[in-house]
Amino acid sequence: MMKRSVSPIIATILLIIMTVGIAALMYTWMSGMLTQLTAQTGQQILQSTAFDFSVAPIASPNGTNTFSVSIRNTGAVNIDFSKTNAIAAVTVYDRLNPAAGVVNQSSCSTINTGTLSVGESKSFIFTCGVNIDVSRYYYVLRVTIGSTSKEVIFR
C-alpha cells in the first residue's frame, strides 16, 4: 500500500507562506516596539536638555546689544557646553509697520566652554551685532541649547 504525501510544489508553497507570515508578524512586533522606544528616547532627550533663563539687556554704546542671560539647568543631566553650544539670536520687528515682518536678524556670541550642573544657574553675556531703536522696533531674543529653544520678547 502506498502512502500519499504532499507534493514538493505544495510543500514549497506552504514553506514560503509560513516564512512570509512569520516575517510579517516579526515586522509588526518590531516596528511597534521601535516606535515606542523612539518616542521615549525623544522625550528623555528633551527632558535632559531642559533649561530656563532670564534676561537683562545691558546698554552698549558701540552699536551692538549685549544681554546678561542667567541660564538654569532644569534638565536631568549636566550641560557640557564643549559638546552642546548655547546659541543666542536676535530677531527685530517693526512696531509701527507689523506687515513688514522681520526687519533684521543677528546671531550673538556663543557659549562653548564650561559645564552647567543639574539645578545650577550661571550668568552669561551674549553680544549681538544689531543696534535696536526700541521706540520704533521690538525684538525677540532666542536662546538655543542643543535641540531646545526658548525665547523672550522685548517690547
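The above is record 1. Record 2 follows with the same two-line structure.
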Amino acid sequence: MANNSKIAGTASTSERGLEAKLSEALEKLYSGQGAKAQELLQALGREASEAGDLVVARRVRTSLMALARKGTQASLVLPASSEMTIQVHLNRGEGKEALAMAEEALKAAQDRGGLHYLKALALAQLGEGERSAEALQQALTLEPGLHHQFLLEKDFDSVRATAAFGEFERF
C-alpha cells in the first residue's frame, strides 16, 4: 500500500477495510454480479483516492477497465484467474492460502513474474524474509517493472529490513 500506516507488520484498520472492500467487489465480479461489482469498485476507487491508497486505487482502475472491455451485464461471469484469487487471499491476510495457491500455479507457469511476485508477498506476510526475497528476485528477473510496485507495497514492510532485501531498496 502507498501510505505508511503499517506498524510492526500489520495494516491499519482503514487500509484493511479498503482491501476487504476490494475483495468483496472482486467476489461479486467472479460470481456473475458484474453490475454490482462495478458499483462497488467505483465507490471504492473514490474512497481509495481520498485515503491516498494508490495501490488499491490502481487495482480498482484496472478492474474497472477490465469490466469496461467485457461489459457490465449482471450475468457477467469471468473465470477467476489464479493471480486474482491469490490476490484476494492476500487482501484478506491469508498468507498460507495465498502461498499454497501461488506455488501450485507456478508449477504450470514458472515464467510468470506476477505469480512469483504474489508468492513473495505471501511469504512476506508469513514473515519468511529469505524465501520472500528469493521469490521477489525471480519476479523482477521476469518482470523488472514490478520493482516500483514492490517499493510501494506495505506487505513487504515486515521483511524490508532483512539483509536479503537490501539490494531491492537501492533503486
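Residues 82-170 form a domain with the Serine Threonine Protein Phosphatase 5, Tetratricopeptide repeat fold (CATH 1.25.40.10).
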